[in-house]
Amino acid sequence: VSQSGAVVTPATAMTVAAVYACVRIISGAVGTLPMHLKRRVDDRTREDASDHALWGLIRRKPNRWQTPSQFKRMMTAHILLRGNAYALIVRSMGKVLELVPLMPDRVEVRQNPDLSLTYVYTRRDGGRVELAQSEVMHLVGLSLDGITGVSPLTYARETIGLSLSMESHGGTM
Alpha-carbon torsion 56, 58, 63, 65, what sign? Predict the structure, then answer.
């Protein structure tokens, strides 16, 4: 809750035109950028690794329902609104089959004594699944601890809350 009394969440922040426009423009731009998988030939030369098993995953189909552009836009929007983006790495017989986006609000990151990370994901039905660091692709935004990103909404809460309150007040006038 901001000092203006407005509740600022990723969903309410997206109702502010400036926030929506920023998230749409940045994530849209990232979504159009090409993703290349390169192989190092020598110290100065790299070539496309189109024969690599991950090539098709990142260039054609990251999962069963998203295009690479949709996947990149969603992951970028998660970072912009929540500071972190997560995807489950689905493997079969050692081969990566898909990258399934996870809702950042449902992921808890724990650092183990050996400094590795464990992710606890809360499913929609309330069940909790513990995932090893090797099972999660974790994109971190601006971070103060090197483990999790800070939510930009935390630092912009008062500005966004003021905007929400002014819009609400203006709507009643």
Answer: negative
